[in-house]
């Protein structure tokens, strides 16, 4: 069993939250690179400031660790959305900012995309077991519902604009930008993945999503 020196063990007792955070960060990279079946607790332990024994102490087993990595991945993106403070912004600006944030977050965090892809391979079985993930993602839709309500009240948004559909469009375009980057760039070249190409894609994502929400007569006034 892989154990670290005594001075590291003292650190585990002094900062258990830090130890747990370190394990989750390393494990997320390992699961993203190797999948649930391919990741090894020995490899994860070797790259942390703790030991295999402590990983089992905190998370139970590899599947328990994977489940909490999945929760942490969603927690990070939803925390980022919360920090945008969208409730204080006009509806069009709030929707624009949310779309921009999602595009940029996914682009900066390819491991998040890979973890979600892996979970889809497992038919969402581990996600389904997590009450936390359900609550986090319900909050994401609630934010869009609030934005849409303000937009309708202001006479800007269509009466039938659907928050869940807006979330789907934002997620789909932001997700594909990372998930299919390797194959897309090898077939069609790297132009869309240059800094200029990414700025253009983000701008067009915002235009499409905001345009979908706006009333037809409001689109021409933008």
UniProtKB/TrEMBL annotation:
Residues 40-59 bind DNA. It comes from the Bacteria. Keywords: DNA-binding. It holds the Pfam family TetR_N. GO terms for molecular function: DNA binding. Residues 17-77 form the HTH tetR-type domain. Coiled coil: none annotated. This is TetR family transcriptional regulator. It comes from Mesorhizobium alhagi CCNWXJ12-2.
